[in-house]
Each structure stands twice: as structure tokens, then as C-alpha cells.
Design goal:
Layout lengths: L2 H7 L3 H9 L15 H8 L2 H10 L14 H5 L5 H9 L15 H8 L2 H10 L14 H7 L3 H10 L17 H8 L2 H10 L14 H8 L2 H9 L15 H7 L3 H10 L8 E2 L3 E2 H8 L2 H8 L2
């Protein structure tokens, strides 16, 4: 990325104007992902900057990145409703156009957590919450992964016909609850289990449980809740021998490693995957030096 890309990415219109008009930087140069200045400006959510690039500098509003993203995909992450409307109504960007991974603008809106943007896509542009991308994820999945309790509660209260989406499996056999556990949001997880009746015992195709996903998040309170209140197995191994402790180590959460060691008398130096792959291997593989040091110093 050039200085100009960085300037646009952060929405600095004054610096962008200086680099273009005074320093004569190349406005047509793309970054390594094929993103143009308009893509970065849309990502920043700066409406005036996007307008400046398109109307005054002649940048294309319809350019597509190497991964098939348009300015509309990036604007959908920005929380700027006016910018999204402008790109669709004035520049004719398609709200139903998927990127190369099958992700639609409404999926990116779900990642932003903006309810008004969700409503815009649903009501004005007839986008469905049930549409999935290549992994089998829909709007529910993307909002849960970010831990957006308000977003999920809005959908379940205003659009009860979509509650069934909470119980569908993706292409890896995972359910949305797994992603909520990965987010570490206890309020969201308990809402799904207690009120939406999501299956806390569900496993994906490799037999990973909610406990493993909670360990990924680093939220020890959530891990303890799932084990102590919902009675999940603390050390269940998946079909490859991978346990929740490996998940904690791979994501660098030494406090969870320490808790397991104390609570369940786990021999963390000899806790292996199928008697071959130790926790130290996991730490080294993922570059978690502090975890590796913790294991070596035990």
C-alpha cells in the first residue's frame, strides 16, 4: 500500500488532496489485493472523500478487487448509510453482487453490526437474511462471530421467520452457537442457549465442541460456564485428538492453560494430540512465544 492508499483508508481527505494535487501521486495504482483508492475511501466511510475521488479525480466507482469486492462491500463495513445509498442509487452498484467467496454486501453489513444498514438492505433492496456464501454462512453467522447481541436480538424479535437460521449447520457442520462462543460474548451465548434453544452439545464435523470455541475466545468465564453450568466435557478431543487446551494455546491464552492445569490436574507438558503433537508444538506452530515459555518453564 502506498501513502495514498493509507490516507484514503483512514478517511483523510486533506492528506489525500495534498498527495494527489501537490505531490501528483498515481491515483490509478492499486494495492496488492487490487483495491483502488475508492475501495479504501469507502472502507473509511468518508462520504466526501469518495465523492472527491469519483467526481473530481475521475476514479471508477465500479472497480472490482482481485477477490471480487466492490466499493459497496467496503462501504457496508463503514456504518455510513448515506454512502451505501449513494453507491447503489447514483453509481449503480449492485447490492446483490457477491465477491469471489460468495459474500454479499449484506454479509459485510452484518459484520458492521449496523441495524439501520441491515434494514436498508432487507426492505429497500429485498436482500434475504438466509442467503449464504461459500462456507454456508449467512448474516447470522457474521454477526455472531462479532458478538453482536443487539443485532441478533433485533433479527429474532422483528423477523421471527428467520429464527430457524440459528439452528442450521454450515459446510463444516458447525452451528451459529459455535461462532458466538468464539466471540466470547457470554450474554449472547446464554441468550442463544436459554431463549433460542440452540444445542449447546452440538459438534461440528471434526467433533469440536462449544468449549473449544470458547477457549479460542480467551474468555475463561465463558469456558467455566459451559463446563460447570451446561455440563460440557472440559477435555473432549475431536477426531484428530485436538482438545480445548490446544485451542487455548494456539490463540495464546495462557490464563486458560493455567486454569486447566490447576482445575483438572492436566499434565500440560504431556498433553498431546494422538500421542504425537504436544501443546508446545501448538504454541510453536502458531508463534505464541509466551505460551511456549509458560510450557517450558513448568
Amino acid at each position: 500500500m502506498t501513502c495514498l492508499h493509507h490516507s484514503c483508508h483512514h478517511g483523510h481527505i486533506d492528506i489525500t488532496q495534498y498527495l494527489i494535487e501537490i505531490q501528483h501521486c498515481d491515483i490509478n495504482k492499486t494495492d496488492n489485493e487490487g483495491r483502488t483508492l475508492v475501495h479504501h475511501a469507502a472502507w473509511s466511510g468518508n462520504f466526501d472523500l469518495v465523492q472527491y475521488l469519483i467526481t473530481e479525480q475521475g476514479s471508477s466507482p465500479t472497480a472490482v478487487t482481485k477477490n471480487g469486492l466492490t466499493a459497496l462491500h467496503y462501504a457496508s463495513l463503514s456504518l455510513n448509510l448515506s454512502l451505501v445509498k449513494k453507491l447503489i442509487t447514483t453509481y449503480q452498484l449492485d447490492p446483490h453482487q457477491a465477491d469471489s467467496n460468495g459474500k454479499l454486501p449484506i454479509h459485510y453489513a452484518a459484520e458492521s453490526g449496523d441495524i439501520l444498514l441491515l434494514e436498508l438492505y432487507m426492505k429497500d433492496y429485498k436482500c434475504s437474511l438466509s442467503l449464504t456464501e461459500n462456507k454456508g454462512w449467512n448474516v447470522i453467522h457474521y454477526s455472531l462471530l462479532k458478538g453482536y447481541t443487539h443485532f441478533i436480538k433485533h433479527i429474532t424479535s422483528q423477523y421471527p421467520q428467520y429464527i430457524s437460521l440459528l439452528h442450521l449447520t454450515d459446510n463444516d457442520g458447525g452451528i451459529p452457537l459455535h461462532l458466538a462462543c468464539d466471540s466470547g460474548n457470554i450474554q449472547l451465548v446464554t441468550f442463544l442457549i436459554n431463549e433460542m434453544k440452540c444445542d449447546v452439545n452440538a459438534k461440528n464435523t471434526r467433533d469440536s465442541t462449544c468449549v473449544t470455541f470458547a477457549c479460542f475466545s480467551g474468555n475463561l468465564d465463558l469456558v467455566q460456564l459451559l463446563i460447570e453450568h451446561y455440563k460440557l466435557e472440559p477435555l473432549a478431543a475431536d477426531k484428530y485428538g485436538f482438545t480445548a487446551i490446544h485451542g487455548a494455546v494456539e490463540t495464546g491464552h495462557t490464563h486458560i492453560l493455567e486454569w486447566y492445569s490447576q482445575e483438572y490436574s492436566v499434565d500440560i507438558n504431556n498433553h498431546t494430540i494422538n500421542n504425537k503433537y504436544t501443546l508446545a508444538h501448538s504454541a510453536a506452530n502458531e508463534g505464541k512465544l509466551h505460551c511456549l515459555q509458560e510450557l517450558i518453564n513448568k
